[in-house]
Amino acid sequence: KSFGKGDENEDFKTLSNVWEEGVHLLDKSLNPQLVESFKKAMDLIENASRINMLGLRPYKAVAIYLELLIEEFQSNTRQLSYDSESMFERILQFEKSEVIILFGFSPYTQRTIDAATVAFKQGIPIVLITDHLSCPVASYSSVILTLETGDNHFSIIPIIALVEAIVVELGKRQSKTSIQKIRNLVETLKEKNIIVD
User: Fold this and answer.
1) What does the alpha-carbon distance between residue 29 and residue 96 come to, in Å, rounded to a whole number?
2) What phi and psi, each to the nearest 5 degrees, are found at residue 84?
3) Closest to 95 in 3D by CA, of 41, 143, 49
4) 75 and 158 in contact (C-beta within 8 Å)?
5) CA nearest neighbour of 166 among 67, 95, 98, 80
6) What distance in Å separates the CA atoms of residue 51 and residue 145, rounded to the nearest whole number?
7) CB atoms near residue 156 (< 10 Å)
8) What is the pLDDT at residue 43?
9) What pTM did the predictor assign?
10) Which residues make Cβ contacts (< 8 Å) with residue 106, sequence separation at least 6?
11) CA-CA distance, 104 to 139, in Å (whole number)?
């Protein structure tokens, strides 16, 4: 749909159309149900001995982004998205104190459903980030965070906003250590000339 040219007489403004759609999706996604589910998800994530993440296809990038941000102040993460073939060996070794964050959006991947099934059988809490409550992983999930998806074009804007909210909230909840860890990281990056002012 989004790749179609549209009316020849229309002043086709791609940037503003994509921008408006993103704002619209953010507004539609932020509702009382998401806020309540977010609190429950954060309790699971904060208290987990390890935070596991799985996103496949385009959501692999989002799962990696989440991991990179959390790792700046916390080291108890594990990314399952790199190698979905060996993820089952890892899931079978999860402790009950761990949590798995799954990104499951239509069309759903069989590997995501299979990962959820194995984690559920292990008694591992699942935080599902999805577009529909009818997602096949929903019945296995401890918490479901439902976001709107675009009608006019594919967009991960609400997912990125949620990921950043998770990171900020986790950092706030662990501020006794997270702030100093971020400061140490910034100073080290400056010292090593990786970043400059």
Assistant:
1) 30
2) -70, -10
3) 49
4) no
5) 67
6) 16
7) 21
8) 98
9) 0.89
10) 131, 132, 135, 149
11) 13
**Rounded distance, CA 97 to CA 50, Å?**
7
> Nearest to residue 81, comparing CAs of 105, 41, 106, 52?
52
Reduced 3-state DSSP string for the chain: CCCCCCCCCCCCCHHHHHHHHHHHHHHHHCCHHHHHHHHHHHHHHHHCCCEEEEECCCHHHHHHHHHHHHCCCCCCEEECCCCCCCHHHHHCCCCCCCEEEEEECCCCCHHHHHHHHHHHHCCCCEEEEECCCCCCCHHHCCEEEECCCCCCCCCCHHHHHHHHHHHHHHHHHCHHHHHHHHHHHHHHHHHCCCCCC
Q: Tell me whether strands 126-130 and 77-79 are parallel, antiparallel or unpaired.
A: unpaired
For residue 144, what are the β-bridge partners? 128
Q: Euclidean distance between the first and final Cα of the chain, in Å?
A: 43
In the numeric block, the tokens 């089952």 are attached to 88
- The pLDDT tens digits for 81-103 are 998 788 999 999 999 999 999 99
Cβ within 8 Å of residue 168, ≥6 positions away: none
pLDDT in tens, 21-59: 999 999 999 999 999 999 999 999 999 999 999 999 999
